[in-house]
């Protein structure tokens, strides 16, 4: 009895080897956070890491630092203003600026500091 077997292209893609036959896994090394209070509630965070997959990993590290900093200062929220990410020789860095506040700020990218810090802990991303 002949049976046709249909294999999803997505399943095949999931089994694909990396170039050179190497298997890669996400293994970040978080190299620290530098925090600088710019003015009142305006804070700059500089983070550095290796092993990032893309800008999003570095941005998440900066976000975790901002959320923890807000909690340390007695605030519950932060608002993202900007993040500049760069990579050089496998070392990723981000320069991010946030405002911190006791109440939910206006803006598109707002952070509930407690929720973000809990998410960071679950994902193994260090905070300040």
Task: Describe, in plain words, how this protein is organized in 3D.
The protein is an alpha+beta fold and 128 residues long. Helix content is 27%, strand content 36%. The chain is built from 3 helices and 5 strands. The chain has helices at 9-14, 55-72, 113-122; strands at 29-39, 42-50, 77-88, 91-101, 110-112. It has a 5-stranded antiparallel sheet. β3 (77-88) and β4 form a beta hairpin. α2 packs across α3. Residues 1-18 have low confidence and may be disordered.
TL;DR?
By secondary structure, the protein is an alpha+beta fold. The chain has helices spanning 9-14, 55-72, 113-122, and strands at 29-39, 42-50, 77-88, 91-101, 110-112.
Key terms for this structure?
single chain; alpha+beta; 128 residues; globular; 5 strands; 5-stranded antiparallel beta sheet; disordered N terminus
SSE order and pairing:
Blueprint: H1 9-14, E1 29-39, E2 42-50, H2 55-72, E3 77-88, E4 91-101, E5 110-112, H3 113-122
Helix pairs in contact: 2-3
Q: Radius of gyration, rounded?
A: 19 Å
Tell me the major beta sheet. Answer: 5 strands, antiparallel
Number of strands: 5
Shape: globular
Give the SSE string: HEEHEEEH
Structural class: alpha+beta
Mean pLDDT: 86
Helix content: 25-40%
Distance between the termini: 64 Å
């Amino acid at each position: 009895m002949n049976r046709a077997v249909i294999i999803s292209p997505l399943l095949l893609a999931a089994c694909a080897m990396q170039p050179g036959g190497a298997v890669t896994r996400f293994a970040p090394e978080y190299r620290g956070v530098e925090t600088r209070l710019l003015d009142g509630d305006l804070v700059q965070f500089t983070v550095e890491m290796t092993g990032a997959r893309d800008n999003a990993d570095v941005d998440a590290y900066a976000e975790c630092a901002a959320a923890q900093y807000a909690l340390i200062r007695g605030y519950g929220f932060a608002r993202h203003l900007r993040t500049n990410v760069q990579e050089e020789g496998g070392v990723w860095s981000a320069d991010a600026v946030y405002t911190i506040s006791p109440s939910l700020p206006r803006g598109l990218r707002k952070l509930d500091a407690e929720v973000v810090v809990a998410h960071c802990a679950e994902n193994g991303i260090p905070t300040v």
